[in-house]
Amino acid sequence: xxxxxxxxxxxxxxxxxxxxxxxxxxxxxxxxxxxxxxxxxxxxxxxxxxxxxxxxxxxxxxxxxxxxxxxxxxxxxxxxxxxxxxxxxxxxxxxxxxxxxxxxxxxxxxxxxxxxxxxxxxxxxxxxxxxxxxxxxxxxxxxxxxxxxxxxxxxxxxxxxx
Length: 162
Prior knowledge:
Blueprint: H1 2-11, E1 17-20, E2 32-35, H2 45-48, E3 53-56, H3 68-90, E4 106-110, H4 122-139, E5 145-149
Parallel strand pairs: 1-2, 3-4, 4-5
Helix pairs in contact: 3-4
């Protein structure tokens, strides 16, 4: 989804920036790439000051694994890192001069169909539902618009069934 969204945004004149934890990730030359590490989201804040729309679209599916390590990884990747990215981005939102005017920045978060229906992976479902609840909580006092994107099921690396 991320690559398709970047291509569509570029057609509209946007200048997307890819933020990735994967050193092997490949992007078109026209796309700037910012590497980052889980737990170090604060290091991205300076770069996020220039961003108008932050799209959070990362996740991990440990499938049937229910070990302590799988629980920690699922919560960290699917919910907590997204929360830190949202918080860091919201810190870059300038208060409009006129309080009646909305901020010009937005956050779009791709949760998952697992947020609204059962998933084949219990930890994926739990962590994505937590992310959805955190978005609802953050919307209450957010200085910008936060949009929740809940896609229907499709075949991907996270969901090989589709």
